[in-house]
Amino acid sequence: MAEDVTSVETETVAATAADEAPKTETTSDEPKTEAKAPDEAPTADGDKPKAAKDDDAPKPDDEEAAKASKKQSAQARINDLTRARREAERRAERAEKELADLRKKEAPDPSKYEDPDDLSNARLNHTLDQREAERKEAEAKAAKEDAETAVAEAWQERVSNFRETATDFDEVAYRAPVNDETAADIARLEEGPQIAYYLGKNPAEARALNNLSVRERAVELGRLANRLSTPPPRKTSQAPEPVKPVSGNGAQSSSFDPEKASMAEYIAKRKAGWG
C-alpha cells in the first residue's frame, strides 16, 4: 500500500511540473507519436500483458463452497447406490420366492396317469419347471451380488467423507472385533463409519453385538446410530450432581441409566434380569 501511495504522489508531482513548464511549438513535419504507458506496451504477439490480480487467488469462501459441493455430490452418489441396493434386494427376494414355489413341485407319478400322452406332458412340464428354477436361482444370485456391490461402493463413499473428520479411521475402525454378520449390518447403515470408528475404540461393545440375535443387533445398532448422530446437549450448569436419596432400607437406589449406559452394561443388566 505504501508503494502505491508513493507512486500516486510521484505521478501527481510530475503532472503538476509538466503543466507549469513553458510549452513550445514544434515545426517538424514528422508525425507525432504518443508514448504508451509501460503497462499498455504491446507484447510480442500484439496483446497487452495482463496484470496479476489478487482476486485470482483462491479464497476461503471458495474452498468451503468446493468442499460443500463435493460433499453434496458424494451424498447424491450414496443415495443412488442405496436405491440400487434396495432394488437389487427386492429382485433377489422375488426370485427366491418364485424359486421356492418351483421347487415345491414334485415329479409326476406315473401311477396317477392312465393316458401315456398325459404322463409325457406332465414330465415335460416338470422339466421346464426345473429349468426355470435354475434360471431363478441364477437371477437371485446375480441380484444379491448387485446389492453387495452397491453396499460396498456406498460404504467407501461414506468412509471417504468421514475420514476428513477422523484421519485415523483405518487404524481404529478396522480393528473393531466384530464378526461378518455384524460388519455387514454396519456397512448398510448411513452412520456405518461412525459406528465402526466407535466400536474400534470400544471393543467390549463390539463383542457384545456379536452375541445378539439378528433382531436384537438391529435394535442396538439403531440406538448406537442415533446416539452418535445426535450432538450432545449443552451443559447449562457446572454445579455438581445432587446427592442421590437413600432408600428406606439404607441402601442406595440403582444408578443404572439406560440412556447413558454402554452397550455392554445394558446387555449385562438385561441378562441379570433387569427389564
Condensed summary:
With 275 residues, the protein is an all-alpha fold. It has helices at 2-20, 60-103, 116-163, 169-173, 180-187, 192-201, 203-210, 214-229, 263-271.
Notable features of this structure?
mainly alpha; elongated; 9 helices; 275 residues; disordered N terminus
Folded structure, characterized:
The protein is mainly α and 275 residues long. Among the domains are: 71-154; 165-230, no CATH class. Helix content is 61%, strand content 0%. It has helices at 2-20, 60-103, 116-163, 169-173, 180-187, 192-201, 203-210, 214-229, 263-271. Helix 2 packs antiparallel against helix 3 and helix 5 packs across helix 6. It is elongated and about 90 Å long.
- Quaternary structure classification: single chain
Whole-angstrom Rg: 38 Å
Low-confidence stretches: 1-33, 35-42, 246-253
Strand content: under 5%
Helix content: 55-70%
Number of H/I helices:
9
Order of helices and strands: HHHHHHHHH
Number of strands: 0
Structural class, from secondary structure content?
A: mainly alpha
Our measurement of the CA-to-CA distance between the termini, rounded to an integer number of angstroms, reads: 74 Å
Main sheet overview: none
Residue-averaged pLDDT: 76
Shape: elongated
Summarize the SSE layout with pairings.
Layout: H1 2-20, H2 60-103, H3 116-163, H4 169-173, H5 180-187, H6 192-201, H7 203-210, H8 214-229, H9 263-271
